[in-house]
Design goal:
Elements (H helix, E strand, L loop, with lengths): L1 H13 L11 E3 L6 E5 L4 E6 L7 E8 L4 E8 L2 H4 L4 H19 L4 E10 L2 E12 L2 E11 L3 E10 L6 H8 L2 E2 L2
Antiparallel strand pairs: 1-2, 2-10, 3-4, 4-5, 5-9, 6-7, 7-8, 8-9
Helix pairs in contact: 1-3
Amino acid sequence: MRKVITALCVLASVELTSDAVAQQWTEYRPADARFRVEMPGTPQIRSDTIPELGSLKLTQAVVESADGWFAASYVDLPPDQIKNASANNILDTARDTTIKWLVSRNNKSQLRSERRLITNGYPARHVVAEVPIFESVFVLAARFVFNGRQVIVITFTGPSGAETEADVSRFFDSLTFQW
């Protein structure tokens, strides 16, 4: 389970480049997932099988805007990997792994805040981490949701302070789930 969460968090944080420039808001609703999110432009979609995890497929949509990068990622978890894990443990592992990965890249990175949420009936975590880069401070704002079969991670990465902008709030607030 830890490998799944580690790979998802790392890939969600690493894939921060895109040629897409935000034009207008579009809905991202993957055909093989049970969620939707609004993104400030047309996302570039990529799916990869994670070699360390066998046949698990990570799907990611990324939009680059003037303010930063918006990403929505998800992975389906096999039932045998989640049957003995609680949603809280899965989300805590996702948070811890993300912060550990950021610190491994820059030892001055740190968790700034965390909120436990319920998103459309599913347990979630919203975390904001500071990531000093050269003379600037960037933030990674991430929402982790476990819907019983998938881990969904939506992230915004940009300059410190941008995480409170209206577009970022709209992005996070637009995450909903279908049945």
